[in-house]
Amino acid sequence: MFRRPRVAATVALLAVGAGLLIWKLSMRDEPTEVNRTTTIRDVVPVPATVEPTDGVTFSITGETGIVTAPGSAEAAGIGEYLAGLLRPATSYPLKVARAATSQGQPGQIALLLAGADPALGPEGYGLDVTAAGVTIRANAAAGLFRGVQTLRQLLPPRIESREVQSGPWTVPGGHIVDRPRFAYRGVMLDVARHFFDVGDVKRLIDLAALYKVNYLHLHLTDDQGWRVTIDSWPKLASFGGATEVGDGAGGHYTKDDYRQIVKYAKSHYITVVPEVDLPGHTNAALASYAELNCDGRAPERYTGTSVGFSSLCVDKELTYRFLDEVFGELAALTPGPYLHIGGDEAQTLTADQYSTIVTRAQDIVSRHGKTAIGWNEVAGSRLLPATVTQFWGTSPEAPEVVLAAKNGNKIIMSPADRAYLDMKYDSATRLGLSWAGLIEVQDAYGWDPATYLTGVDEAAILGVEGPLWTETITSVDDIEQMAFPRLAAIAELGWSPAKTHGWAAFRDRLGAQAPRWVALGVDFYRSPQIPWVASG
Ligand code: TNX
Question: Are 185 and 414 contacting, i.e. CB atoms less than 8 angstroms apart?
């Protein structure tokens, strides 16, 4: 007798609940809170610890200056960088001066290299916002630079505009202590399938730096083009670089261009990792020099998008002189520790042939004082102890990579079904490919680099990277559409502690980035999964 009304009440409650949920979800399509105040909880990647001080703010005014660590030219450089970011929108002078002491000063933004917990490492920082000022403390300049990215995100989004905006320039009060979870947080740009010039690469560096990315991997060579001058093999760039996918003119970086990229990246505390893909993905080189081919005949240059058909000649000694000279010249252009040797999709070689060339390539890189990174196929060959494997599979079972990890070889995680920035978001996405699946923002964010692979410990993970292959990508706008917002998701997985991860909070933080991207002119993908904040 009493049962039925209870069931009816439950059903009614469920219906109301479902209705509310649907209403809430449909509200997500609406842009929220125009002119919303930036809070200390909006930062991406989310800092390790955030303690707001309610009711306290600091305002940047025409009197505010930036003071930097006594005796540090690097800190002074970061002060100038910060002033350069803040001056256009505020129109304030923001003078940069050396701090007299290692204390913060009233009315100032202080960038100090004293008083940070040594456990924060070289990239960690502490950031304090009181009514009197802003103080960032770090152990090294890299930490100050990362802290400055956080400060940028605490200011109103219009701070990113290059035109004068009205204030107030309020920073929410509180205390942040932050450090990265992983040492390697990368983005890859394939400049081989389509060429992107120095300005395009600088733009990507600017945007990646905002999310504390610290490695830029350049996929410099492939079947469709060779993109950097090698003096001892000049036709690689002049002939092998004059094509790209489709009928575009291609292009290449002169050594000066390349040095400019390295320098610009360095000034953003980003290390460049150059990749020369071998033994496959080498048609551009094989077309440029007949003698690199086993039969001595140069193939035509290639502008399609197939993979796996080309290979260097494993049995010719000339191949190893070639690799030695190419990696030697690249090593000389590379202040960072890594040279990437590719190693993916060499489908015309036997396992022994593949192993021979991958083994010798690692030795060559090592003789030039660098550490090799290879796509995960290299894990089947003998690896030098320091060689890093870059996982690009889509299955958690990767026995060779697991074995390499057990032997001490570190892994960069770029699972293609999560981290590939060239996959379509949904079936309607104009650009990109879909062989590894569709990757909406929640897919890009919803995995843990430390647990994706079965049988690998977190200690074996060097970090994460979002690769952007460019078979279908031809412009900076295209890069931005595919990288944003997903690069911000990958960057948060690489930087923030596992315990801070959570889709609901991330979605809101990410939504708050929209007006920043609008101010920066970023052509981002407005995923329906995200409650984008409208520009005010
Ligand atoms: C696989 S990932 C490749 C690339 C393609 C990419 C397209 C990898 C190591 N090789 O050659 O550009 O897929 O998504």
Answer: no
